[in-house]
């Protein structure tokens, strides 16, 4: 589409493009030069501050355990949230009002509340009402917050996935005499899982990003909080941020790329209905559009 | 029953949340539109910059960006946002800056997908009557694109409202910060939790309903 916005450049357009490129390049260079100068002033460029990242010790003591905890929390959250989300998503499509409405209220409520609030509340709940040891508490709280929030997002994904299937699938299932439950479990859900796969993988990116919140606010020892212990040890604020940023980008970029590869592959495949829920569909997931009862579409994928 | 509220400025905290949301929304809309313009522009360097910015910022946790704005931008790079002696104001402004920078990536993607909904013929017609790239983008494509992206942008706005809580990581006195203090000091955990959750439902629900309705009315029927 973008190439439709302009013609193939002629001589004058080419000159203008080159001029704009040079101006833009100079602006970027100026920014970099300024940042470089400031880092030099504060001695952030000294090799001693970067050296830890090429030694095994910094990785083994700080970064890798942190990354491990990030992945552990994210994986556990998605494993718990997925079945929970499926239950709520299906309940929201129930024929019975007394099932549909409460499920809808729960899903919309947890989608509208920030994850941080859920984590803080879970933390306090574990402190007061359970005997979870204080070492495990942050982990429990982070996972609880992530599960509550993401189960309700995934509930919407499941619902959108099932609703995206052609009506003929349900009708054919009824025609051969299957019950409602049988239709759901043996006809609709298996097909919907394929439809939803890319959306679920891209929701993983959101979960990984949100674990960092637990590190800063709840002292859960994931990548962000191991960064602060590392920086306290080596006094390398900027280098540690750059390295941790690169780790996060690499991890999430791999997930995003995998999701879009999956999406393309599923769209191409001859089996199935050719329907796929991609990352962008989830971002725009709006209760009103999926034919919901009420709801505001609570910004699923950011 | 509501005696746990005594001595806390709940409304003030939510007012800070609203201010953070509103200022960052304006900032991210401007910066995001510029980024979207870069991503579809004929200049390869700008296209590359736009793509790189969106891909990097979307994949970094907002927490990392906000904490960096305080520990890195302010302390190392000396970006104090004109409030070097007022720590609270500085935190607030840094939070607005980070939230804008982060949300702009999502705004850019929403607008770019809106540009894709404008029929090819519109841009072709614009070029046929001799409009330049920036003219056809400004006068023909973006006005139609914006009408199509009101609902997606409403989703971004709601997500932004919820993301302002991350500013608690650098001590901005907004809703989540106050909730943390109240949870630690008050006995009625459930009541405190419900109060703040309700506050966010009140903030996000009307936004979504109103903008969803506006989006439906404004969308170009094709």
TrEMBL record, chain A:
Coiled coil: none annotated. It comes from the Bacteria. Keywords: Cell membrane, Membrane, Transmembrane, Transmembrane helix, Transport. InterPro entries: AA_ABC_transptr_permease_3TM, ArtM/GltK/GlnP/TcyL/YhdX-like, MetI-like, MetI-like_sf. It is found in: Cell membrane. Its main location: membrane. This is Amino acid ABC transporter permease. The lineage of its organism: Bacteria, Bacillati, Actinomycetota, Actinomycetes, Kitasatosporales.
UniProtKB/TrEMBL annotation, chain B:
GO terms for molecular function: transmembrane transporter activity. One of its GO terms (biological process) is amino acid transport. It is found in: Cell membrane. Gene3D superfamilies: MetI-like. CDD domains: TM_PBP2. Keywords: Amino-acid transport, Cell membrane, Membrane, Transmembrane, Transmembrane helix, Transport. Residues 14-211 form the ABC transmembrane type-1 domain. The chain crosses the membrane at residues 12-35, 56-79, 91-111, 145-170, 190-214. It is a multi-pass membrane protein. The keyword Cell inner membrane does not apply. NCBIfam families: HEQRo_perm_3TM. Belongs to the binding-protein-dependent transport system permease family. HisMQ subfamily. This is Amino acid ABC transporter permease. It comes from Streptomyces adustus. The lineage of its organism: Bacteria, Bacillati, Actinomycetota, Actinomycetes, Kitasatosporales.
């Amino acid at each position: 589409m973008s190439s439709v916005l302009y013609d193939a450049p002629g001589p004058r357009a080419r000159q203008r493009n080159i001029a704009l490129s040079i101006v833009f390049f100079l602006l970027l260079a100026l920014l970099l030069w300024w940042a470089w100068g400031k880092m030099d002033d504060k001695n952030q460029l000294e090799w001693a501050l970067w050296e830890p990242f090429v030694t095994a010790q910094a990785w083994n003591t700080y970064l890798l355990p942190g990354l491990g905890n990030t992945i552990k929390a994210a994986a556990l959250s998605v494993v718990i949230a997925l079945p929970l989300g499926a239950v709520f998503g299906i309940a929201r499509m129930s024929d019975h009002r007394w099932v549909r409405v409460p499920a809808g209220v729960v899903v919309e409520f947890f989608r509208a509340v920030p994850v941080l609030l859920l984590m803080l509340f879970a933390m306090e709940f574990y402190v007061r009402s359970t005997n979870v040891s204080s070492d495990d508490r942050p982990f429990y709280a982070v996972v609880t917050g992530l599960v509550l929030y993401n189960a309700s997002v995934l509930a919407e994904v499941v619902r959108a996935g099932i609703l995206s299937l052609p009506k003929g699938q349900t009708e054919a299932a009824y025609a051969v005499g299957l019950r409602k439950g049988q239709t759901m479990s043996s006809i609709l859900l298996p097909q919907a899982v394929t439809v939803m796969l890319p959306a679920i993988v891209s929701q993983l990116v959101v979960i990984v990003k949100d674990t960092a919140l637990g590190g800063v606010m709840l002292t859960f020892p994931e990548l962000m909080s191991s960064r602060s212990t590392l920086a306290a040890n080596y006094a390398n604020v900027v280098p540690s941020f750059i390295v941790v940023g690169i780790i996060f980008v690499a991890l999430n970029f791999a997930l995003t790329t995998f999701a879009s590869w999956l999406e393309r592959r599923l769209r191409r495949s001859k089996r199935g209905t050719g329907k796929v829920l991609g990352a962008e569909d989830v971002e725009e997931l709006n209760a009103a559009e999926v034919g919901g009862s009420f709801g505001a579409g609570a910004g699923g994928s950011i | 029953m509501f005696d746990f509220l005594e001595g806390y400025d709940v409304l003030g905290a939510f007012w800070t949340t609203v201010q953070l949301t509103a200022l960052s929304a304006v900032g991210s809309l401007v910066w995001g539109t510029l980024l979207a313009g870069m991503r579809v522009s004929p200049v390869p360097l700008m296209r590359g910059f736009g793509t790189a910015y969106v891909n990097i910022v979307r994949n970094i946790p907002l927490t990392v960006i906000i904490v960096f704005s305080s520990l890195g931008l302010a302390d190392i790079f000396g970006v104090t946002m004109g409030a070097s002696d007022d720590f609270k104001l500085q935190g607030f402004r840094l939070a607005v800056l980070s939230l804008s920078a982060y949300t702009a990536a999502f705004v850019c993607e929403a607008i770019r997908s809106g540009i894709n909904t404008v029929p090819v013929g519109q841009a072709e017609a614009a070029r046929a009557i001799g409009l330049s790239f920036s003219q056809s983008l400004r006068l023909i494509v973006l006005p139609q694109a914006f009408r199509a992206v009101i609902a997606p942008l409403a989703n971004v706005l709601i997500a932004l409202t919820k993301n302002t809580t991350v500013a608690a990581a650098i001590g901005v006195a907004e809703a989540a910060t106050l909730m943390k203090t109240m949870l630690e000091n008050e006995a009625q955990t459930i009541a405190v939790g419900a109060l703040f959750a309700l506050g966010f439902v009140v903030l996000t629900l009307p936004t979504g309903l109103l903008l969803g309705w506006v989006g439906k009315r404004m969308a170009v029927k094709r």
